[in-house]
Amino acid sequence: MSTAAAAYPAGGGTTTVARGVRDRIDPAAAGVTAVLIGPVLSLVGGSWDIQWHHDVGPDTFFTLPHLFIYAGTAMAGIVSLIMVLRATWRQRAGHAAEPTVGGPPVRVFGGIFTAPLGYLVAGVSAAAFLLYGLGDLWWHGIYGFDADSTSPPHVGLFLNISLTMTGTIIVCAAGLPARWAKRGLVVAVTLLTVFSPFITTAFEPIPAPFDVSLIAKGFFSMLLFIMAAMLMRSAMAPLAIGGSIAALQAFLWVFSPWAAHLYADSVGLPIRDAVQNDAPSFPVRLPILMIVAAAVVTLTLWRLGRPGHRLYRWRAPIAGAGGGLIVSASQLAQFSLAGELGLPHFPPLGLLTAVAVCGAVAGAGAGHLAPRLAVLLMNRPAAVKGN
Length: 387
Fold this sequence. Notes:
Elements: H1 3-7, H2 13-24, H3 27-55, H4 64-92, E1 105-108, E2 113-116, H5 117-143, H6 152-175, H7 179-200, H8 213-232, H9 237-267, H10 290-303, H11 315-337, H12 349-378, E3 384-385
Helix pairs in contact: 3-4, 3-6, 3-7, 3-9, 4-5, 5-6, 6-7, 7-8, 7-9, 8-11, 8-12, 9-10, 10-11, 11-12
């Protein structure tokens, strides 16, 4: 037998080597890592785009921030499609379902495709995003420039990015208690929490003595924090998420103005005269004290988390109330100091008290719902039938 024949025995040694490489690659971890990169790009592009509107002004459809937004969503959609095709191939080949890879399988189009639930949500949302992208192109074709970032197509785009991030949370929850799933869940919840200002703008037109979006931010953040703690069975999860949010906020605080000004210089557009030392438009909408709220939630869940504690059953609403109060009240003070609400240097005590109380109530409601949402994500039925 020749040396080459010995090195590559009959039966295909190269196939054996390739199979060994595939065996070392966890498809669940690889899929969630790839699909999370997309929302990161979209978030960076969204913060950049908002800063552009504030510092430079109107834009067209074909801009670099838009490229980041669309590329991120396209990547999430492509990865989701690959994982759906993989699950479909495995089902047709007679392999057992893998509920830890993306969630329980869903039969789509009468069984033509078998889609893991998390990747189905992320993929459909990404596809809808691209359809809204065509609407945005049509909008620009009719009206030209966008004066701000809250045009109807943009609202649809932001909503679908949020749903894509929700799909990644389902994917990570399905993989628990694996280490990659815990890390992915921290990243996914961080991204969706940071992206929540895009969602909560829908509450701004509600007639009220104060900006209702402040309360909505407290609700959404506490819902996600406590849900993650219940899913991971760890009181430290909110603190890890809060630290990640602080790091991401610090990055966007530096990156967004720098990128907007650099890009404006490169295309020969001036910066608005009124822009001087204003706080970055998107990062300032994230509560700087979010890390403090996360610490309060962690401490409360830890102290009341012993089954014999008399407040054990109420630990989640109590933690949500404390965190919601901090997020909503501190955001009001933060907006006032940054000149976002047209208020004096510090909000009136009556207004601050009203926002704090409403934030605590909303946070308590989020704490009540979060464990139930976590239970829904923990359930992994063998199959879910669709149309």
